Fold these 4 entries.
Entry 1:
Amino acid sequence: MNSLLGALKSGKVLVSDGAWGTMLQERGLQPGECPELWNVTHRSDVFKVAKGYADAGADMILTNSFGGSPIKLAHYDLEGRAAELNEAAAAISREAAGSSRFVLGSIGPTGEMLMMGQVREEAVYDGFRVQAAALKNGGVDAIIVETMSAIDEAAIAIRAAKDATGLEVICTFTFDRTVTGEYRTMMGVSPAEMVKAVKDAGASIIGANCGNGFDQMIDVVRVIRKADPSTPLLVHANAGLPVVEDGKLIYTETPEMVAVKARRLAESGANIIGGCCGTTPEHIRALVKELKTA
């Protein structure tokens, strides 16, 4: 595979995959279960999620490793199996993607706050380094540090991934709109602050994921583009904002609805577009049809 940056030089918008958590839940993942453990206990189910997105035409497939840092896995007493579970996650997505699609190794937050002294910086770095190295061993082409809200943790994850793998690193934050109309993370980070911090740490692709539907992400992209007009930008948007039905979160936007909005997202400056919570292979298929036929 060529690099992601190389693939983006053509100017074409690339399509990423969709939700993982909600898709695994549809296959039986229960509240309180460790999703990453499914890479060895329910391998065929994890493979089917990845293969569904590959068959839908996605240019890249993520890995089932979002919570795969040793610190996060410690909640399940699985910290000692971090390398095993991450390498398995990468191998599954690599098999599903084949040789013609990129595989992005997913690294999410630890769930602990560095500024509150809940965990040592060295432990966070070491854990992310173990995770990233295992993802590379399993066959990923790049690392995506995603759903971040704090600059310190994101920067550590990026540095650890670069040190352990030498691969390109993407970093996305999750933003919410404040009462004053600005976009900030739960830790108060603005899009402009995110851009500078993650680029300084070594990320070559920036972006946003989760927390917002495609409509809101259009605004987020415009704000990011004011701060940085040129760095490649990835967006993973939800299938709209969720509503509660019978005690469950339901994402109501159809594949056809998000496809139309994805065109506007691309026009606003997104270079890679995919889905987050509530999106399915059918949503990704619709994105491919809309974005690849212009």
Entry 2:
Amino acid sequence: MEEQKAAIDALSAMGCYYYSISGGEPTLVKDLKERLRYASAKIPYVHLVTNGLLSEEKMVSEIVSTGIKEISISIDGTEKFHNALRGREDGFQKAFNTLKLYAAHSDKLQLTVNSILTKRSLSELRELRKMLDDFPGVHYKYLPLSVHELFQNDAGIDKAFPGNDASIDEMEAFLNEAAADDRNVNSKIFLKKAKLFFRGQEDILPEQKQCVYSYHAVEFGPDASVYPCRTGMNFASEISGKTDLKEFYSSAKCSNIQKELKSCKRCRNTMPLCYYEPRLNFPITNLVKYYFSK
């Protein structure tokens, strides 16, 4: 707790606008409410990602009361599909019940459904979108499933998904619909790149030849270790949670890590939300808003 608070203090002092907590599963943390409340008092936009398995009415009310701005619930399709992916017979029902609980508070925070997008989940996501029509305040976001260098054994993982492959034309039509839908919170640029990804284009992020992720983002592991990019650092950080974050970011060590990560290629030919969306959804105008809020 103290290490997380120290990191939040440092991020706030450096002008951080967006702070996201994901897992694992954050609702397993017993003092989550206190952590969220502290972050919300220091950073303008705090976001929580959950699988919705543990949420009850009391927990939902407590989390909403912390002042966070957004909740994302992971739902990958209709009941049979979602449960098959998650390996739980009650997964969908619990997640959807959590969605209903948070929807009652959608005037106080943005509520988003996160879904994996593959050639085999297209029809499922269309059905899920129809179900979400009953919740006009709910948004949705798609993440194309990528084969990653660090997890080479997942090649062909699409085949583990129930269902049949959609055609490239069907994928592009779906992504066009998402781009035109006000309830979809993916940026239009990200969705445009996703078309290239599903076409199998080799170089979907040509502008990432010099990666700038470590200049606008920082990640923390469960032990509070600091990663200018966890993937780029191969999930092995030399920087502990006891590090003074502001001091670290003005150090030669940090500068050297950022320079090394510029030429990192571990995310090439994948669709990392983290690379695009924070810069596009939280643009420079937020700097002005942040300045005047102070």
Entry 3:
Amino acid sequence: MTNEQKAIKATYFSIAGNTCLALIKGFAGFFGNSYALIADAIESTTDIFSSFLVLFGIKYSNKPADENHPYGHGRAEPLITFLVVGFLITSATIIGYESIANINTSHDLPKSWTLYILGAIIIWKEYSFRLLMKRSKQTKSTSLAADAWHHRSDAVTSVAAFIGISFALCMGKGYESADDWAALFAACFILYNSYKIFRPALGEIMDENLNDDLVEEIRIVALKVPGILGTEKCYIRKAGMRYYVDLHAIVSAKISVKEGHDLSHRLQDKLKEEIPQLGNVLIHIEPDDYH
């Protein structure tokens, strides 16, 4: 299974899970008198739309290069991540606003059975986070990582709701707002996660140097090619699930231009063979007596 197929499969899993949970949380929050659960349902609903965006971004970013996009379409993925962050910020704002409004409004205590539903939700969302984060690391997908953090933030909002409802039930009448304070905390946590998702996507768009380990791996692999004496400059930029490399390779000054040309192609082939996530590799040949 290719990285793209793994990422797409994980995204379908996310969409199906969020759809079921949004319905469960919404009904449980309405009939169980818990705004924290309703807030949780709002976030899960936004997660459904953001997962569809992630799915589109993964499919579009993996389209092959064409005449208008000679470097491929990989930059679409961090752009989609920005939209996903926008969904998160919007949901956090709505949850925070409604929580503040409900804190000063008298309402019934949440139902005790909502705690059982929240317990099951917390376990499921944490499992979903770990699964998608594993897939994002395998595929090097920033948008899939953003979707994974949606699940983690959902788990934390559910934990906050669990604590808020438990406190309200234990303390009794007069402490109904504990549920709303829990929802407000959840909104703040969602905003914090929004930054954590946004930062690496911004680094990708700006070609920030975040790939020191990959640079070292490329240098080691390059030395396995007979005729390559060393490497000098190595620049890497990420686009989608691929890494594009500009590498200066040192060869003997005594070989012909054709021999240097052939060496560069052998080096390209070797790098792509041993590091499958590489996209285009541009090799610049440097003579050893130049240094």
Entry 4:
Amino acid sequence: MQKELSLFVGTFTTLLAIINPLEVLPVYLQLLLGKDEATHRAVARNSCFYALLLCFFFLVFGTLMLRIFGVPLAMVRVVGGIILMKIGFELFTPQKGQGIASAGADPDANIAFVPLAMPLMFGPGAIATIIGMTATIRQSGAELLSFAAIAAAIVLTILVTYLCLAYADRLTKFMGPMGIDATTRIVGFFVSAIGVGLIFDGVFEALQLHGITSLH
């Protein structure tokens, strides 16, 4: 049970850091500028629902693809770690002038799906996290419980994200631009550290599989 709890905590913290609701807030508010509160809540609810579906799709589809094609789990960890490390560096050192708020310029566009659900909430980092975490699950009697832990972590992450979006005005006023920027940079540092950890574990496991090193 302790292993499943660790998997739940690891998946939740990593996914929450990757999605980073505080970074989504400015774009979310700009896209819905002038809209009433009911519209804000509806878009927040729909975007989080889309993101949840995408997460579960890759949780099942990604795992099946790994097993069907026999992709080494060590390689999945390395690739996922590289992606997370890159995203972490981008969060830690954001470039001025970047943004995708214009993606919602069309009033008829479904902004709940694009750009909010994709790519702001669910992008390469989330995919790498979900597949990377499922890659750590071994064939065992507790495998189903491990998948349940990951699924619960996904649900909790999306719930926290929804609450942040639903109370976006209050959060932005409370933290201010400097607070959000500082939080984003701190999150970026830890995401990079998580990515490096995955790369290290993947390389070490690959060396073990090829008999280059051992635990002894």
